[in-house]
Amino acid sequence: MEETIWETIELFCPVCNATFNQLVVLHKVPKGFKIDRYLAGMVENHDHKAYQAAKAQAVDGGTPQAG
Ligand SMILES: [Zn+2]
C-alpha cells in the first residue's frame, strides 16, 4: 500500500510576475530527485497565457468562466 501525498506548493512565475499554487504529488520521489528543477519546470510549462487572461478578466470584472 502506498500513500499518495499531495502538496500545494506556491510557485513564482517571473513571466506572469505572479505567484500561483501548484498541486504536486510527492510520493515515490526518486533518490536524489531535484525538486527545485522539477518545480522550475512546472513554472516554465504552466500556461502563462491562460493565467494572464484569467487575471486580466478578473480585473476587468468580466463574465467569469467556468473551469
Ligand atoms: Zn507564467
Sketch the topology as an H/E string, one letter per element. EEHH
Question: How many strand units?
Answer: 2
Shape summary? elongated
As a whole number of angstroms, the C-alpha radius of gyration is: 15 Å
Structural class, from secondary structure content?
alpha+beta
Describe the structure in your own words.
It is a single chain. The protein is an alpha+beta fold and 67 residues long. The chain has a domain of 46 residues. Helix content is 36%, strand content 24%. The chain contains two helices and two strands. Strands 1-2 form a two-stranded antiparallel sheet. The chain is elongated. The mean pLDDT is 84. Bound molecules: zinc ion. Zinc ion binds next to helix 2.
Could you give a quick summary of the protein structure above?
The protein is an alpha+beta fold.
Strand-helix topology:
Blueprint: E1 6-13, E2 18-25, H1 35-45, H2 48-60
Antiparallel strand pairs: 1-2
What attributes does this structure have?
2 strands, 2 helices, alpha+beta, two-stranded antiparallel ribbon, 67 residues
